[in-house]
Amino acid sequence: MNQDVYVVIEHLQGKVAEISYIMLAAARQLAQVSGGKVVGVLLGQGAQALGNGLGADSVLYVDHASLAEFNPDAYLSALSELLAERQPRTVFLGSTTIGSDIAGGLSIRLNAPLISQCQQVNAEGGRLTIVSKICGGKIMAETELPGTLTLVTMIPGGYPPEAGQGGGASIEMVAAPSLDDLRVTLSGYIEPEAADVDLEKEPFIVAVGRGIQTQDNIELAQTLADLLGGVVAGSRPIVDQGWLPTSRLVGKSGKQVKAKLYLTLGISGAPEHIEGITGSETIIAINSDPNAPIFGVAKYGVNKDLFDLIDPLIEKVQAAKG
Amino acid sequence: MNIVVIASLVPDLVEELEIGPNGTALDTAWLRMVINEFDDHAIEQAILLKEKNNAHVTVLAIDQDGIDEVLYTAAAKDANRLVKLVGEFEEGFNSHALARAFAEAIKDFAPDLILIGVQAHTNIDGAVGPLLASMLNMPYVGYISGVNLTDGAATIRKEYPGGLIGEMKVNLPAVLGIQASEQPPRYVAVSKVRQAMKTATIDEQDVAVLDQSGGLAVSRMFKPEVTGGATMITGSEDEIAAKLVDLFKEIGAL
Amino acid sequence: MSYNTIKSIVALLAILVSFGIFGWRCYQFLWLNLRRGQPSGNFGRWGERIKGLFVFVAAQFRLFRFRLPGIAHFFIFWGFLTLSLTILQAILEGLLAFANPYFILPFFGEFGPLALLQDLLAVCVMIAVGYGLVMRLFINPERYKGSHKNQGVMVLSFIFTIMFSLVVMNGIRLNLGTDPVTSQWRPVSNLVGSLLAGLEHGTQEIIEQVAYWIHLGVVLVFLTELPTGKHFHVVTSVPAVLLRNLEPAGKLPAAPEFDGNAGVSKVEQFRWRQMLDFYTCTECGRCQDVCPAYNSGLPLSPKLLIMGLRDNLTERGYALRAGAKNSILEKQLVGDVLAEKVIWSCTTCYACDQECPLFIEHVTPIVDMRRHLVIDGRMDSELQDALSNLGRYGNSFGQSDRMRARWTQPIEPKIKDARREEVEYLWFVGDYASYSPTLTEITRATAKVFQSANVDFGIMYEAERNAGNDVRRAGEEGLFEMLTEKNLAALGKSKYQRIVTTDPHTYNTLKNEYQFDGDGHPDILHYTELLDQLIASGKLKFSKKLDYAVTYHDPCYLGRYNGVYDAPRRVIEATGCKLVEMPRNRDCALCCGAGGGRIWMAEGEVKERPSESRIREAVKLGVKCLVVACPKDVTMYRDAVKTTGFEEQLVVKDIIELVDEALGMPVTKTEIESS
Q: Is C391 an interface residue toward B (CB < 8 Å)?
């Protein structure tokens, strides 16, 4: 039985995605208990160099033109063949726009169980379990990890990416299967419009969520942001409504920000949003729900109705500016 | 053009979620079920495609308490056909079981396109869409926020981090996991839904057995610890505002 | 052919043409167009209706709300009525000229006192018309904006001319001795005649006939013009007042059974009674003057709305009868004729309906048009969200129904559950009072005050839903029905004798629109009415006498809609406060801007919010406190105090806070500086 732990490396436009390192860190923890090696699985074209810097024992690299950028049909075919042959104990994929597209297909083709939304691997007393975060971050579900081929999709938050970085992994070329007759083709990427604001570079961000209630109220956030020399951002519901342009979206499908100050108004803290903010230095969350998941991630929290707080806050900030 | 859209209910996160007595599942007494937001977007996308391409839209769901209203609301939005899978579901169902049940039913519909929400927040064994696609031997792409239909193919927009969009061409028939419809789900007046309840019919189809294999049993369910989370700032609004100003100064925003 | 024969022929032709055109237009507008309209139900209560004719038509009651224009119109109206006999005289004189050139109307043409009245009224009318011309040409108040000024000036000139030519004719007849009434009965005509007395007999006769033809001619031209604009009210005002709506203002007409379409998308889908309203508009603009939306810079003017509906009804009438495909028929009622923003700007405050001298209903056509927009999904995303939340959770906040009674947690003893225990008063708390953090203190204070007065009360806890008043006015009739069903089911299971509520909107719909089966409609009280009763009966005794000078804002749904003005005032005075009235008080109070679902919508471009205008009005009085009796007023006015920068000068308090303080152990914290 193969006790190796495989990690499907995600990359986009020539860069390895952070989730790959996070998965490698988890894989390392798992491998230490199960025995076996941490193996990175890299699909691409001329992308061998991406294998450097991975905290893996070895890297399997499949090279094919159709694998240059992510293509769900191509990746699914290539991976199912590779994994069916090698039958590792566990395969990590990102719970992302890349990994989630193919994990299910792999589960059916390989007849292997699938556990999703994994944040943490637990190895207490030699018993390996996967801890998943579900229901908007409000519930944790723990599942025992079987001893045979199991697929696990992973979300960030359980491991620092640095723990999955390394180097010197040996790279083994694996022959690509024939990838003719693909049912999906990538036409190209559409870059986000150059926006007035690049959230990834902003040090001070005031972010609004559903709790802001109306588009007009976003003005309050703008006033505060202006006073702090910062900008306004929003969570998914705000942008879907058109109350803020997509350039201001923070989260899984938006920007991942690394602000010095990330102040949230009425954001509950769904995992998709959390994914965009964990790189920030100081998160201060204002939410009237004491159980809002954002309080688990923020450095400081205020359990008050934002509309009761915002005016005294703006006043005091104005006074402090003199 | 034959479109099937799949909708399910999930626990409403507005309510407090409690763990059930055996510690492995949610306490159903406290649950209010609501349509999975992404499935709502999928229905909207299907209706938009019907308006643009004159498609036939079938809404497919599994029997849950409250699913009828979701189906009738879809009918009020102009969906053509409503199908509900019924059977003995006491043990609940995971994504694999749902995918198998839907796959079985869909075999008779001969759809060109299947739309489903990209995920549901209760998923522990993955999302239904990719599983369903594999069972039907159809291609799958998820995180979609734009769909255009041409001859025998769909041109889709797939969301990547940072606002990046990937444009892909998918051969039909295919399963698409919808992240967001091209416009927010429309409001349907209660009168129209009530009228649909009188005029529309829901076809019921039996599901023999729910096969949950592929998903694993949860051994423990618990609420995440909030301790180790935020340091809470308390007091009156004025006191809190003053403390926040101090923090802002520390951080350098003031 | 003699002059008199020609006179008869010309008069006959002119009268036929004029009456013909007038009759034809009346037929097209008031018969053919109105016939397309929906049924308007039975009328009944004829005694009351006829009494209304005396009060509102004869006595011109509502017109005096604007003093000088009211006086002027009073004289124009009575002058017109009294002098209509002189028009009859002129017509018969013309038709019979070939037989009797000196025809005089039997009795009425010979009765001295009547002649005197007519003479004096002619002068009054000319003065009134002069005032009207000054208003239109020089003063030009805001409320005339959008009205047809030229038409107004033309008609005023017509009336003046008719009066003046009459006086000239009479004056000359006195000179020539052809008037059976002696000159002391016609002092004004006599005066004018004396100015012409020096002219030759023949010249005077010519002038007399010229004056006659001008007199008759202008009358006949005016008659043809009458149906085409604001002066149609001359014909339509009597049926309009006679057939006015006698149902309570706060009771919207029921929607017909839903058949896939609801509300009005084409003007001919209105009820014929509404169409009569459109033709009754005088374009006076009083409604526009008192409209909070219009005065805040939003695109709604109730006057322009009715005028737009009138003109669309007329042009569609023509187009439909012409049969051919017509670009007029392609125009969408909401979209092309009236912008969607116009329809959504209304707060349903009823100020326009209250002000209109001819009882034109502005709110019901707006709600009818909204009903259609809702079916079509044409509303802003914020309103959609609010309605979705109301449908799913029974409140517009999107919070769980289980959280509705969370405010009760610290209250000891625990408030009774009316679903389980019998209570005397079932307190229907309302959404804002239950869910809005700004109001929690006030709601708790209300409970405390009830407890201090030993009121036997209970609430329905999480079974309560939004009462639906504003859902209905936003046009979501189906959701309103659903909410009423749920509330009535919960009320049906509860045991109580009376219902009390803190929210005037809830009060309005429970009182006027909810159909209680079985034991009949229970008494519905606003909490100020209950407090008033408790104070009067001695059950609520104050230990402290507050000496603040305060002012009071009459909530629209308590005051204008339901006539409750005095109870809150008595309560305020009972606490010892000195009440200084707002300049716009009672049925003239300016709406805070939250009603009609507006609080759930995107604000739009406003120049000055109605709530801000009210705050400025209150501050000018020099009082330190604005007292309100509606939870939405608390929210709106506290915000407005901040946005206008008057936090140091004015504090907004709910009546219950004064009562609480006067009881000696206040729960609420906001303080008023003693004056």
A: yes
